[in-house]
Write a structure and sequence with these properties.
- The chain is 33% helix and 16% strand.
- The protein has 81 residues and is an alpha+beta fold.
- It has a 3-stranded antiparallel beta sheet with strand order 2-1-3, with no helix packed on it.
- Helix 1 runs antiparallel to helix 2.
- It is rod-shaped and about 65 Å long.
- The chain starts with 8 loop residues before the first strand and ends in a 7-residue tail after the last helix.
């Protein structure tokens, strides 16, 4: 599994004009800088947690919350939505 994040966009610099632009493509290996934009974490909703509680037992909810916290840590090291 490749954990390296791909650039979301590129800042491209034109040597002839001195202007910069943002694009979804790298226009030059030497004159482009990658942009890495974070993604918002989407965790379990209260409604989803309630469904787990109704369908199972309290340990199912606790397990779901534990797995959710591990996933949050794996996604940008953030443990808050």
């Amino acid at each position: 599994m490749n954990n390296k994040q791909e650039p979301t966009a590129w800042v491209n610099w034109c040597a002839a004009t001195g202007k910069r632009s943002v694009s979804f493509e790298c226009e030059s290996e030497l004159a482009s800088q990658p942009l890495y934009l974070g993604r918002d974490w989407q965790g379990l909703t209260d409604e989803q947690k309630l469904c787990l509680e109704i369908q199972g037992n309290k340990s199912d909810v606790m397990l779901a919350e534990l797995v959710e916290s591990w996933l949050k840590e794996a996604n940008n090291g953030k443990n808050t939505p």
